[in-house]
Amino acid sequence: MSNAESQGMSALEIRLQRESVLPDHEARRKELTGPHINTAKFAQPAAVAKPTPSEKKKKPLLETRALHKSYRKGRLTIPVLRGVDFAAEEGKITSIIGQSGSGKSTLLHLMGTLDTPDDGEIHFANTRIDRLSSRQRDSLRSRAFGMIFQFYHLLPELSTLENVLTPIMISHGMWRYWSARKQFRKRAEELLEMVGLSHRTTHKPRELSGGEMQRTAIARALIAQPRILLADEPTGNLDEKTGGEIMEILKRLNREQNLTIVMVTHDSSIAAQGHDIIRLTGGRVEKQ
């Protein structure tokens, strides 16, 4: 037995230590953050009461302006987004609905800085984010955005608990993670309990149902206490009953933690559970 194993480290922790992930955390943090972006400003503010209809409309937390995006396929240029204006208010669930090929997932990926637009602007917390460097986008995502996807994207060799902890291990580095591992593991366990998986912490993804994998993905998305949750077809791979349970978790997070959620779906009954609905057709927002 190695010294690391004798200290109770998980397989993932041992691997990260051996690979010396971010040994100089402060230097790496500065490298990721860069000189032109202060990620502290994106931190989750204290919970506030949800706005009433009579209150003055707030400035959007996440906003796009005249957003364009095309993809190349051989000699063809395929336009996907054609000047999309979008706004998500803080503390609300905003649904983006559209048929396959309407551009809704592309829009979500652009807002989550997973891709860059051809033209237009993206603003988050009053800061333009579409012109950030790759490293700055990585830093922003790790601190302010939580993301869940239709196909879960769990690491098959890791347990449920380790999958939830992965973003923290990567963003903090092994040494900082190790110094606060009890605190991080406690938060991960609390999140798994919140989504109803406290009895499945040691199970691998292959041992989980689709609904359990999506619950794990939700817990993973929340581990860094993001300010906004971006959900790409969160119920699209689930049956109606299980999808309903996932929606209840998302609505509870919004209601109890004032978490802003932007959700892409093709299902009108799912979209209707949001506060605001944006419909995309042919890469454009339909006028209401």
Q: What does this entry show, briefly?
A:
This protein is an alpha/beta fold.
Strand arrangement in the largest pleated sheet: 6-7-8-3-9-10
Quaternary organization: single chain
User: What is the C-level CATH assignment?
Assistant: Alpha Beta
Are there runs of 5+ residues with pLDDT below 50, and where? 19-37
Number of helices: 11
Q: Structural class of the secondary elements?
A: alpha/beta
* Arithmetic mean of pLDDT: 84
What is the CATH architecture term?
Answer: 3-Layer(aba) Sandwich
Element string (H = helix, E = strand): HHHEEEHEEHEHHHHEHEHEE
The CATH superfamily is P-loop containing nucleotide triphosphate hydrolases
Q: How does the major sheet shape up?
A: 6 strands, mixed
Would you mind describing this structure in some detail?
Belongs to the ABC transporter superfamily. Macrolide exporter (TC 3.A.1.122) family. Residues 62-288 form the ABC transporter domain. InterPro entries: AAA+_ATPase (IPR003593), ABC_transporter-like_ATP-bd (IPR003439), ABC_transpr_LolD-like (IPR015854), MacB-like_ATP-bd (IPR017911), P-loop_NTPase (IPR027417). The chain is an alpha/beta fold and 288 residues long. The chain has one domain: Rossmann fold (3-Layer(aba) Sandwich), CATH 3.40.50. Helices cover 38% and strands 21% of the residues. It has helices spanning 3-6, 11-18, 25-33, 104-111, 134-144, 160-172, 174-179, 181-194, 210-222, 240-257, 268-271; strands at 62-73, 76-88, 93-97, 119-124, 127-128, 145-148, 228-232, 260-265, 276-281, 284-285. The strands form 2 sheets. Strands 6-7-8-3-9-10 form a 6-stranded mixed β-sheet, with helices on both faces. A 4-stranded antiparallel β-sheet has the order 2-1-4-5, covered by helices on one side. β7 (228-232), α10 (240-257) and β8 (260-265) form a beta-alpha-beta unit. α6 runs parallel beside α9 (210-222) and α9 runs parallel beside α10 (240-257). The longest helix is centred in the last third of the chain and has 18 residues, at 240-257. It is globular. The model is unreliable at 19-37 (pLDDT under 50).
